[in-house]
Write a structure and sequence with these properties.
The chain is mainly beta. The protein is built from 1 helix and 18 strands.
Amino acid sequence: MYPSRSGVISMCVLLLATLAVVVPRSARAQEIEPNDLVPLPPGSNVIEGYYAYGDLTEFNVANGPTFADKTGMQVNLGAGRYLHYFTLGGHPAAVQILQTFGSESGGEINGASLGSTFGAADIALNAALWPYADRARGRYLVVVGWLYPPSGSYDPRSALNLGENRWKGNLQIGWHQTTGRRFSYDLAFDTTIYGENGDAYPGGLKLTQVPTYRVQAWANWRWAPGIETSLGYEGLFGGKQSLGGVANGQKTEEQRVRAAASYFITPTLQVLLEINHDLQVVGGFRQEFGAVFRIAMVF
């Protein structure tokens, strides 16, 4: 038996208040963009700047109702990323660091206000190794490890937070293949393991979460040297949350479609624009429209 509608509304507000982080679906570090799985030559460095926007318009309670009226949130984020490529044991390798910051504003569920927040997300640390890299045929296999120390902005009294107040780790495996002169594709699978947040509102309850699994795919078409368009898919599964040992209605189940276009202004300066739309979300906010703009400089 489900609780009454007023009880569900109260539960929604509570679960957002107790959620350690409401990370926008347009700014997740393990999300790959087209050709991200291709290593650059050893000694290369890359600096990237991101802007991400998300218009969240619905909220679903896992195994419960979906709220659309007077429900949503606006997300505006910036991020900076640095990557360095080198050789390890004769194989291409890379390390990187990513810092995201920004705001979540106008949050509400069925008219119940969640307020707003501004701050920094947890820093993301990354190490990657390509055990197989065939540059002549454009085929690459990469294994990536991510670590997120609890360094971001977090207030247990706030309904919205960019920091998670917990450790988090991720293992990702990716494959890139070029077919012919113009077509290529990217495939990736990853799993995220979450630590405990022992200071979740209210009353310092313990927030736990089971692992999340993700699949991603991009199909890329190069129209001319330096000009490419792509269509993509992303699916998230698992990630059920519990507060004090009781499920709180949050998960990380999502189906998303994506489209991207990239252009090399110069051989070392690239711009990329992605737009995306969530087809379905279970246990969280659904993003009606999202956009990511990236500029990358290689040196």
